[in-house]
Write a structure and sequence with these properties.
alpha+beta; 7-stranded antiparallel sheet; OB fold (Dihydrolipoamide Acetyltransferase, E2P); Isoleucyl-tRNA Synthetase, Domain 1; 6-stranded antiparallel sheet; 2 domains
Length: 402
């Protein structure tokens, strides 16, 4: 403004809330991330762009949820948008081989042309106001309308009963397809460009103008057999195999009190503090390795989501972790002075703990002691907010953590 030249100043500075991953904050250090190169190897780029746009946190936090990503791709991109374009182009290519002529418009045709203009205005207004999610929803509503128009006019019947009327219906369908290519270009540039080429345009769609959404079609443009714009997805086919460690909820706990188990000579009952997660009782066989005074007040690592189990009549809500080597030495894991309730994690492994972890599932997680008394899993170090997890006593390298 002070420069006093014709500079393009921002007319709106949109600020979004946060996108989260499966309910948790993205964290590179804890492996809670979706890496762009990895996801591009598995999914079409427009499918990713679509989900990020339709799910963007414009007014409140939203979540990237894998099952929702698959559902939105299959139900909306494939089922509504891709399906409409494919059935129009496929039917027309098979029966006419080219974009057909426009004949006399009836009421439904005029309503369709009016609908194109109304939705285009809504998309334009939404984008101008930086309401990107609203704009995309409006554009998708045109694809849904196109499916309704196609079904109501039943061109598969008209091709046998009234070929001229069939041509006209398909011409209107192609006008909807043409408009969709332009309206979706900002969101889904690659699929829009494919549609643009199908419609007989030589230039790339990025060089088109907004008004091209309403231009007259290139009647007679030859149609090739169409390819599907979007692929149906399934979690089983595309998800990276889940690491068993991601299911476990390891937490720092502070031992507040220790008592003898009333029915077992080798067991302690420990009351532990998990910070914001509250307090709970654990039953552990530490009696022959630690006195009450030695263990009371320590910070330890526990499996917080293990299914509760009754041990000699006392319910244990979790399990502490300790290392044992082949000489019989047993040592608790030491997370340093990390806050009770804070997470124990491994860099590079996403943390998606299940609500209840079965003991058989936990047994698949083979943790050991590595160099410098550090707790490791699959060669990766366990970490607390204060750094590496180490043993409380010296044990041999390779000691099992259980």
């Amino acid at each position: 403004m002070g420069y006093d030249e014709k500079l393009s100043l921002p007319y709106d500075i949109p600020a979004n809330e946060y996108l989260r991953l499966q309910g948790e904050q993205f964290s590179k250090s804890r492996g809670l991330a979706i890496w762009v190169p990895d996801i591009l190897e598995k999914f079409d780029v427009d499918a990713i762009r679509y989900y990020l746009s339709i799910n963007m946190p414009e007014n409140k936090d939203t979540n990237w949820m894998w099952d929702d990503f698959i559902a939105k791709n299959n139900d909306e991109l494939v089922g509504a948008y891709g399906n409409f374009v494919h059935r129009v182009v496929m039917f027309t290519q098979k029966n006419f081989g080219q974009i057909p002529n426009k004949g006399t418009l009836d009421k439904s045709d005029k309503e369709a042309i009016k609908k194109i203009k109304e939705i285009a205005d809504e998309v334009s207004s939404s984008i101008e106001k930086c309401n990107f999610k609203k704009g995309l929803r409006a554009a998708m509503s045109l694809a849904q309308f196109g499916n309704q128009y196609f079904d109501q006019n039943q061109p598969w019947k008209l091709i046998k009963e009234d070929k001229k009327r069939c041509e006209n219906v398909l011409h209107i369908c192609f006008k909807i397809v043409n408009a969709l290519a332009v309206l979706m270009q900002s969101y889904l540039p690659y699929s829009s460009d494919k549609i643009w080429k199908i419609l007989g345009h030589k230039n790339q769609i990025e060089k088109s103008k907004w008004d091209d959404a309403f231009e007259e079609l290139k009647v007679g443009a030859k149609l090739e057999k169409p390819q599907l714009l979007f692929k149906k997805l399934s979690l089983q086919d595309f998800m990276i195999e889940e690491d068993p460690f991601s299911k476990v909820d390891l937490r720092v706990a502070k031992i507040l009190d220790v008592k003898d188990h009333p029915k077992a000579d080798k067991l302690y009952m420990m009351q532990v503090d998990l910070g914001g997660l509250g307090k709970r009782v654990l039953v552990a066989g530490m009696k022959q390795f630690y006195t009450k005074d030695e263990i009371k007040g320590k910070n330890i690592v526990i499996v917080a989501n293990l299914r509760p189990a009754k041990i000699r009549g006392v319910e244990s809500k979790g399990m502490l972790l300790a290392a044992e080597d082949n000489t019989g030495i047993v040592s608790l894991l030491n997370p340093g002075d990390a806050k009770p309730g804070s997470e124990v994690y491994i860099k590079g492994i996403s943390r998606e703990p299940v609500s209840i972890l079965e003991f058989e599932e936990f047994k698949k997680i083979n943790m050991t002691i590595g160099e410098k008394q550090e707790a490791v899993y699959d060669g990766k170090k366990l970490m607390s907010e204060k750094g590496k997890i180490v043993t409380d006593k010296k044990v041999k390298k390779g000691a099992e953590i259980k």
